[in-house]
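Forwarding the complex inputs:
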Amino acid sequence: MLDRKFVLENIDLVKQNCVHRGAKVDLDQFVALETRRKQQQIEVDDLNRRANEVSKSIGKAQDAAERELRKEEGRQLREQTTAAQAEFDALAAESENLLRLVPNLSHPQAPIGADDSANPTLRYGQHEPRRFDFKPLDHVVLGERLNLFDFEGGSKVTGHGFYFLKNDAVLLELALQQYAINLLIAEGFTPTITPDLAQNKILQGIGFIPRGPETQIYSIADSDLSLVATAEITLGGLLADTILDAEALPIKLCGISHCYRTEAGAHGRASRGLYRVHQFTKVEMFAFTLPDESEKMLDYFCGLEGRIFDGLEIPYRVVDTATGDLGGPAYRKFDLEAWMPGRGAAGEYGEVTSTSNCTDYQARRLAIRYRHKQEKGTHFVHTLNGTAVAISRAIIAVLENHQQADGSIRVPKVLQPYLGKERIG
RNA sequence: GGAGAGGUGGCUGAGUGGUCGAAAGCGUCGGUUUGCUAAACCGAUGACCGGGUAACUGGUCCGCAGGUUCGAAUCCUGUCCUCUCCGCCA
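Prediction (whole assembly, two chains):
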């Protein structure tokens, strides 16, 4: 959510940003509502003041008749106040609902464009796509041969888009988790395993829409809980309604959670095997920073994501996400796309991680503030999130990039200590 | 799941209908004193929304939501959370 005052004072800028973002919000309506809200506030304040004065005078009145008279006066004022307050509340709620739909501002250097076709590549990883002297297979075929997945079983037990990991794929999942978590611990992150469910108000604070036709979220019937789509939700929610000491910032957390996504409307798109599934495990990074430190933190997160995939010896490129592809909360976003040689006819890059600077957009919705010890007042922190490893997609990249002519998989060095072997199959 | 206790400012903790945004202590900040530090003493010290160039000023907030009342931290109802004991369970 943007700052009310800021939007009113920079309405043209905000409007233009909505166009770049592909967001349709009636900002003129917002301005009109705000004007009325302001007037209503003056009226409510005035009525309140008068009612308070009357109330106080009753305590001092000695004469019983006068007392009754003043009581009646107070009664009437209170009635008016209640009505005026109700109208104010309605206006405020209506304008806030609009405000919540306004996307975050965009970084001045974020490429302007409608979708991911506008994303320029910023850099490549340490490793170049390998030249195969045989036809590389995709992860589904590899997994079938090595007995690593059971998509039919997942489908039978749960439904399309669910799967069982089996045998060495289980070890691989655990190894990837440990590799990422240990790397992040060494970088000073506090590791967590978060709940897989969260309250809808937390989801909304982070910027997700728990229910409705476009939702990507599974919600729990007869409760206000939803399955999380990412640990970003739980890690950000962890400090909701908190005032932090400026000295305590930045706070770097990482968390393992399962991620549940309905992927509504995604049928028919490239979704073979593990690429687009309804449940996967993810190690997520999250940071709370001072406002002037968030850009640096974004680069740091992006660098860590690169280090993790360099370590896995997987080629990748980093792209700068275009405005139309940013999603509501992000001010700037970098995606890391790994080379997947089994994808498409001759291999393709596929998104494996993503990191965003959400500036104060989430902090404002979740009421996460900081305070300097010697200053009055509070400010909103900046929040950032980034994928360390989305296990399902990382498995794709590992299998496809490290496959051997005999159908086995070479385990990258960094995973060997966790997996306990140098080769799968 | 059953029984009990409790949720008040950065913290501890008073406060059972108006004079309470709220005692006191701690902490923090400023000052005085003092080789330095510490101690002592004096003073200041919540957040949010709004108005004002500013000094300042209006309103809201005592877990949350309702209710009673001219008036609620205080009375009533609901709800959430925490703690203790019992039961159950991984």
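The first strand of chain A starts at residue 121 and ends at 124.
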